[in-house]
Amino acid sequence: MMKGNWIARKVSGLKRRLLSQKLHYQKISYSQSGEDLIVKYIFDVIGISRPSYIDVGAHHPYNFSNTALFYETGSSGINIEPDFSLFQAFRKYRKRDINLNIGIGKEKTVADFYLISASTLNTFSKEEALRYQDEGNYLIKEVVKLPVETLTNVLNMYCKEGFPQFLNIDAEGVDEIIIRSIDYEQNYPVVICVETLSFSTSGKGLKNQELIDYVTDKGYMVYADTHINTIFVRQDRWKKAP
């Protein structure tokens, strides 16, 4: 009987140690498909422990966020979310960040912003909004006027030390406009994560290969692709990594 109790205690102790090890090695991700862990690995390898970031179309401070993990580990940056109802959560939960309730576009203006019944699809693109509606499951709830700034103006106002090291874009219809507005010779991010799959409820979304080729032509390599998003890293920084 005593021997049985001793064995039970040993087994119980082993289970506790295994659980402790599991908790020690587990990794938390806030992203839709683990993009934040991939990006974190890139920065860890090249020796940037607390990367700055700019998140265009941030949507939510934590849910499906590619920057929340960095905020939780001490980084700070800029969140851009045009939907005012979503923006409020950033004021509450991402107080260390700069939070902007605007859109990003080709020029400084005021533009129509289409609020879709699925808030992840909100867009400044009328063409995209109508396409979502034509899919049959989504409705345009409201069209509101919102201020739009250029990415260059935002950087000039808030990033005096240069482009944030991580650029995340999920801007439904204007991703390519933002990517093409960057001066890749003078002021650019180290890592880019951008949605490169067109939306489709039937699973027939198409990859934007033209956008992928454009970014790689600007000095980046494709490090990973999660089907929805493509993650790029500057070739020169990755080659210098230990």
TrEMBL record:
Q: Which domain of life is it from?
A: Bacteria
SUPFAM superfamilies assigned: S-adenosyl-L-methionine-dependent methyltransferases (SSF53335)
Q: Which UniProt keywords apply?
A: Methyltransferase, Transferase
Q: Which GO terms describe its biological process?
A: methylation
> Which InterPro entries does its entry note?
FkbM_mtfrase, SAM-dependent_MTases_sf
Which terms in the Gene Ontology molecular function aspect does this entry carry? methyltransferase activity
Q: Which Pfam families match?
A: Methyltransf_21 (PF05050)
Q: Residues in domain Methyltransferase FkbM? A: 55-220
**Chain segments annotated as transmembrane:** none
Q: Does the keyword Transferase apply?
A: yes
Q: What is this protein called?
A: FkbM family methyltransferase
The species this protein belongs to is: Mucilaginibacter calamicampi
